């Protein structure tokens, strides 16, 4: 059995700032006008839906936004091994952003999700990559998921561009649809394959997991 800590990114905290509402300062300027919010576009990309599809194999079109974070686990039999995923699903709203380091610091991998129909979510993703590189665990596996690939008619982010970017930072990349269950299991399996085995990296304190590299399962082309 191997335990895989995973943190789909995007959270924070502190005094609620309001997400979509603009708060007015005493000088009458809104906070939006005063300071850039590099992570503002994180909500609604489908992080929770991806986790739900993976853990419960279900999809809720009326799912509520995540408050703070939620935690789920799933164990999958993959070839001759059991992989246990310990997953933190973090909130995308700006007011929860400061919580993010709590989740990614102890994680073996992070999935950064963007919405293929919203270009700004892809730009935001790069800020997360930077933050993970600067403040995350040195060997954290980064995965990029371009979600909602069932909405191909309103696509704003080209798959090739996202793939080129992912390759440039050595990240796992896949386009997913939580709605249609496309590439969800493949995403998690590919991440688990990238996490070094305990043979190569002896764990401290006797905890960890053993994993051999296996050939990737074929991915489905998204829609
Ligand atoms: N068409 C389509 N809609 C999706 C997909 N995944 C999620 N959605 C919808 O997108 C909306 C947001 O989904 P969530 O899973 O709550 O997104 P989130 O990123 O977790 O949002 P926060 O919790 O606010 O950070 C919901 O209405 C979902 O039903 C998908 O693959 N395809």
TrEMBL record:
State the Pfam families in the record: Ras
Looking at the record's lineage, which domain of life comes first? Eukaryota
SUPFAM superfamilies associated with the record: P-loop containing nucleoside triphosphate hydrolases
Basic and acidic residues bias locations: 26-44, 214-223
Which UniProt key words apply to this protein? GTP-binding, Nucleotide-binding
SMART domains linked: RAB, RAN, RAS, RHO
Task: Give the start-end ranges of region Disordered.
Answer: 1-44, 198-223
- What protein family does this chain belong to? Belongs to the small GTPase superfamily. Rab family.
Enumerate the NCBIfam families for this protein. small_GTP
* Name of protein: Ras-related protein Rab-22A
Which species expresses this protein natively? Answer: Echinops telfairi (Lesser hedgehog tenrec)
